[in-house]
């Protein structure tokens, strides 16, 4: 319990939350992030076998040929089978087991396991986060994904926690992250739609996470599932998670945040 409180302090205390962004953030550009995806650092053989076992359950009746249908089926299955709960800082296989047992998992956990399922299904994927600028003590941020659809030849924002896409009234295809925030000033032209009939959409939450006027998006880059799994397996539960993450940072193997649309220093204004 004490270690959990200490870990929360280092993750969520306003001063240290901002310090994490100062350490890990880089200003970027739309052109620069084109080369970044989760698949660059994570190959099929890097993903624990348990993900393949669960993947076989998800697609027990066969895998759809269209990549859009594959990610929809993945998202709906995960949303329907993961109750959610406390945030996890576990190796990826253990995290997935805990999530499927109904004992934990927040948006970042959902986004991370979705990354791994996309890798083993040969779908290019990346993970994004949203925060507020200036920093807001009452908002903890949100994690979501983006995948490259070969059938549509574009990146598409997907929120696996809610199984939804964003759209613009003048475009038929779902929006990418960059398209969402390019259209953002229009407000009235943007809408979101769930493709999971079994779950109701929390519209207030979606608006809070994506359409608040102080929202800024960042791309999570250089995350190696294999590296973090190796460190977490050896250090959990002996030392607090924040120490493990700091060691990985000192070794130069940490993930980092890229801000293609905003100056990250706006967070500290």
Protein described:
With 269 residues, the protein is of the alpha+beta class. The chain has one domain (2-268). The protein has helices spanning 2-12, 14-24, 38-41, 49-58, 67-81, 92-100, 107-120, 177-183, 203-210, 225-235, 241-250, and strands spanning 25-27, 125-132, 142-149, 154-158, 164-168, 190-194, 215-221, 256-259. The strands form 2 sheets. The protein has a 6-stranded mixed β-sheet with strand order 1-8-7-2-3-4. A two-stranded antiparallel sheet has the order 5-6. Strand 3 and strand 4 form a beta hairpin. The longest helix is centred in the N-terminal third of the chain and has 15 residues, at 67-81. The chain is globular and about 55 Å long. The two termini are 34 Å apart.
How are strands sequenced across the largest beta sheet?
A: 1-8-7-2-3-4
Number of helices: 11
| Estimated share of beta-strand residues | 15-25%
Order of helices and strands: HHEHHHHHEEEEHEHEHHE
Please summarize the sheet with the most strands.
6 strands, mixed
Low-confidence stretches: none
Measured as a percent range, the helix fraction is: 40-55%
Radius of gyration: 18 Å
Domain tally:
1
Outline type: globular
Question: How would you briefly describe this protein structure?
Answer:
By secondary structure, the chain is of the alpha+beta class. The protein has helices at 2-12, 14-24, 38-41, 49-58, 67-81, 92-100, 107-120, 177-183, 203-210, 225-235, 241-250, and strands spanning 25-27, 125-132, 142-149, 154-158, 164-168, 190-194, 215-221, 256-259.
